[in-house]
Amino acid sequence: MSCDKFKDLLMGYLDDEISEQERVELEKHLTECDECTKELADFKDLKSITDDITLYQPEDEVFDQYWSSIYNRIERAAGWIILSVSGMVLLFYAGYMMIEEIIHDETLSWVFKGALLAFIAALSVLLVSVLRERLNTRKKDRYKDVRR
Amino acid sequence: MQGICQEELAAIERCQKGSPKAFEVIVNRYTKQSYSIALGLVGNHDDALDLSQEAFVRAFKNISKLKERSRFFPWFYQILKNLCFTHLKRKRIRQTISLHNADGKEIPLPAEGDWFSPDAVMERDETKDKVWKAIGKLSDKHREVIVLRHFENLPYDQIAAALHCSKGSVMSRLYHARKKLKKHLETPNGGHLS
User: Fold this and answer.
1) How many Cα atoms within 13 Å fall on the side-chain side of residue A131?
2) Which of A90, A107, B116, B117 has the fewest CB atoms lying closer than 10 Å?
3) Distance of CA A105 to the CA centre of its chain
4) Above 50 in pLDDT, residue B154?
5) Inter-chain touch B83–A11, beta carbons under 8 Å
6) Contact at CB, B150 and A77, closer than 8 angstroms
7) Average pLDDT over chain B, rounded to whole?
8) What tens-digit pLDDT sequence spans chain A (148 residues)?
9) Can you tell me the distance from the alpha carbon of A41 to that of B114, in angstroms, rounded to the nearest whole number?
């Protein structure tokens, strides 16, 4: 059997994560293969150093505000969504009312009404176009999930 | 990463019905682990704290997509690591742009490991600093398996669940990651194993 299979097993052996059968097979291989034996010794040295490293654990006080900060972010996100949706509804409703009033206003000329409606229609097209572009860009932005 | 308990399963269910308060149980359970993984992946305290919190916010927003409640942590880990890796990519891009703009002269980028603050390691000494810096130079894929095994002390089956791969793949990734780490330590600027 080639060394390739045993290379990965060396890790399991080192971390005590292999079955008894795999251990027997590997130990047999190690008696016959100097390269794998040397590699195992090197990995043991490396592991002894990495195992000795402990990452910084902040004081408990650092985590005191942890949950409240998360809760505030969740709450604010919900607030923005509700604000945006209700704002859009109000905007569309106001636009609808305005258009209806213009159409029914007999004092205004048809030329003026037509031009005003065309102006509103153009504004709507531009708004939808910009929104669609922003949405497409956001979908393709791989870094959107990271706050700057 | 211990097994999930009934209290957590019930809390996840309440979260899926839209209760942010129920999420506190989950956050309290995984706060330190989430922070510690983020610290291993991005290498400094402030970013780790912020990214781990952001990961919880995103987890809550998307919790309805979690199908198997008992697999919360592997699912959450994907969110956390994606945030951390994206953060590092953005940092590299930002640094490249700002370095090119400085007086029109191109300044060499700092080495990858230089973004890893040595203060992230407790009871520092020269060897530990070298190893920590070398871990910072590893690719994201290699670094994460080192972090999960060495700093989180996760058994292979839990690493496999978090990485969505088999136990055999975990061994293979660990082999290549440790090999690469050893190589970094043997280069002149990375220092030698003592």
Assistant:
1) 7
2) A107
3) 51
4) yes
5) no
6) no
7) 84
8) 578 889 889 999 999 999 999 999 999 999 999 999 999 999 999 998 888 888 888 888 888 889 999 999 999 988 999 999 999 899 889 988 888 888 888 888 888 888 888 888 898 899 899 989 988 887 766 555 544 4
9) 29
> Which residue intervals of chain B bear CATH 1.10.10.10?
111-187
Q: Please list the alpha-helical segments (H only) found in chain A.
A: 3-14, 20-32, 34-50, 66-104, 110-140
CB contact under 8 A, A67 and B28: yes
Q: What is the mean pLDDT of residues B139-147?
A: 94
Instruction: Output Rg (C-alpha) for chain A, integer angstroms.
Output: 34
The mean per-residue pLDDT over the stretch B9-33 comes to 90
Other CB atoms within 10 Å distance of the CB of residue B132? 22
Read off the amino acid at residue A112.
F
Architecture (CATH level 2) of domain B111-187: Orthogonal Bundle (1.10)
Q: Which of B32, B174, B184, B192 to mutate to test the interface with A (most CBs of A within 10 A)?
A: B174
Q: What is the mean pLDDT of residues B112-124?
A: 70
- Whether the complex's predicted ipTM surpasses the cut of 0.85: no
Within chain B, all domains assigned CATH 1.10.1740.10 are found at 1-109
Distance (Å, whole) CA B172 – CA B39: 24
Task: Provide the residue ranges of all domains of chain A, joining segments of one domain with +.
Answer: 3-50, 60-140
Q: Which of B57, B151, B158 to mutate to test the interface with A (most CBs of A within 10 A)?
A: B57
The confidence score (pLDDT) of residue B191 equals 46
Q: Please state which architecture CATH assigns to domain B1-109.
A: Orthogonal Bundle (1.10)
CA distance A129 to chain B (A): 27
